[in-house]
Amino acid sequence: MENKTKLKGTAKLQIDNKTVELPIYEGTAGPDVIDVKKLYAETGHFTLDPGFTSTGSCESQITFIDGEKGELLHRGYPIDQLAEQADFIEVCYLLYYGELPKRDESRAFRRALTYHTMLDSQIDKFFEGFRRDSHPMAMMAGTVGALSAFYPDAMDVNDPEQRRLSSYRLIAKMPTLAARAYKYSIGQPFVYPRNELGYAENFLRMCFSVPAEDYVPNPVLTDAMDKIFILHADHEQNASTSTVRLAGSSGTHPFAAVSAGISSLWGPSHGGANQACLEMLQEIGTVDRIPDYVRRAKDKSDPFRLMGFGHRVYKNFDPRAKVMQKTAREVLDDLGVKTPLLKVAQELEKIALEDEYFVEKKLYPNVDFYSGIILNAIGFPTSMFTVLFALARTAGWVSQLNEMNQDKTQRIGRPRQIYTGAPRRDYVSADHR
Ligand code: CMC
């Protein structure tokens, strides 16, 4: 990756009697950054920023978020345009290669992915080792990590061809693995991929087809699934992507790095919020119970939070939530589903957006607020929601990893700390403690 930051000026930092000059760089968009790389060498001080609220970890040319405006761009293209006009495979290509594919490039890319949709049959034995009630995210983290054992031919992250091969394998195999995790959890036989089908349709078929009855595709659901994949494809340096980069910075196998990302995504503050959000909407159940939950969300002595609300970067509407809301309505209308969940969600959104607490803290609905309603209507159990997020985010993870491995300034990630534990002391034998 050719580094493109521009030197804009310097910041002066005074520590005791010493003044150090730190370069300020500007990118294409977003806040300028103060480069503190040399701070330790020049002053003997580290910076401290738990949760990385003020810290950039890398230069990237993939995704940009303007949190104040509520804008998300992939390689410069707004997410709503991609969701409305592109398909997921085009977005995968865009994220990985930096440009939208021409027709022949798109054909070749799709064809190449279909060569990698199958799994080594040994992997099925891994599934058999899991309890049937295992959370599918546990199965995903385990089996994606295990797949690194099958591809020793793609371990050299300095070789662009090996990186490409791992990336294609990950994007292509993730639906097959995710569908297997689902089928295993409900005790149904695995369904093999069909390469003549599109990415989303193939995935839905692998989840919902049974030997006794083939899956009849519904274009509205296929389209909604594809949109959900696009909306989750990448989101710059979030927790799971940073985890993939940090794990990958040691030069580990890309499947192992992505397995680490899946583990990070699982938590309810991150990808797990879509499961938690639908469970919350189901628990609320009816509109008259909403004020009680809003009151609880505002009560600092109550750990309850409004799931699907708030974001570290967005201080405005998450643009993905807007597309999701529209898609939810389309899916429910098409299926003729009369669930109270959408009504509860819309009313909850309205009340929260007018409430002083949420207004003041700039807490808006995020991508997870409506996605669960769609996935629930399609027929997925809540435990699968985060798996679908992981499937889609794989496009971003492999693109970010590929970018990192081309970055000449890339070194192993190694944060520091401020130590506040016991000072040096001598070992005391058990008799004298
Ligand atoms: N309900 C009630 N209060 C909230 C919420 C919420 N959902 N989110 C934040 N707050 C309050 C929080 O209590 C804090 O208040 P105070 O300043 O008085 O202590 C303030 O808003 C700032 O919150 P924070 O936890 O310091 O902010 P953060 O940037 O560390 O956390 C977040 C961001 C997304 C983890 C958080 O908003 C949250 O827990 N939301 C619910 C979970 C959720 O929907 N996560 C999905 C994120 S989008 C998908 C993804 O990218 O993974």
Describe this structure in words.
By secondary structure, the chain is mostly helical. The protein has 18 helices and six strands. The protein has helices at 39-43, 79-85, 88-97, 103-114, 122-128, 136-147, 160-185, 199-208, 219-231, 239-248, 254-265, 273-284, 290-298, 319-335, 340-354, 356-360, 368-378, 385-406; strands spanning 6-15, 18-26, 33-34, 63-66, 71-74, 77-78. Helix 7 packs antiparallel against helix 18 and helix 8 packs across helix 9 (219-231). The protein is globular, with a radius of gyration of 23 Å. The termini are far apart. The structure holds carboxymethyl coenzyme *A (CMC).
Spatial extent as radius of gyration: 23 Å
Strand order of the largest sheet: 1-2-3
Count of alpha and pi helical runs: 18
Task: Provide the succession of SSEs.
Answer: EEEHEEEHHHHHHHHHHHHHHHHH
Shape assignment:
globular
Helix content: 40-55%
The end-to-end distance, rounded to whole angstroms, is 57 Å
Q: Note the beta-strand portion.
A: 5-15%
Number of strands: 6
Average predicted confidence as pLDDT: 96
* Ions and ligands: carboxymethyl coenzyme *A
Low-confidence stretches: none
Query: Which structural class do you get from the secondary structure elements?
Result: mainly alpha
What does the main sheet amount to? 3 strands, antiparallel
Defining traits:
single chain; about 425 residues; mainly alpha; three-stranded antiparallel sheet; 18 helices; about 50% helix; binds carboxymethyl coenzyme *A
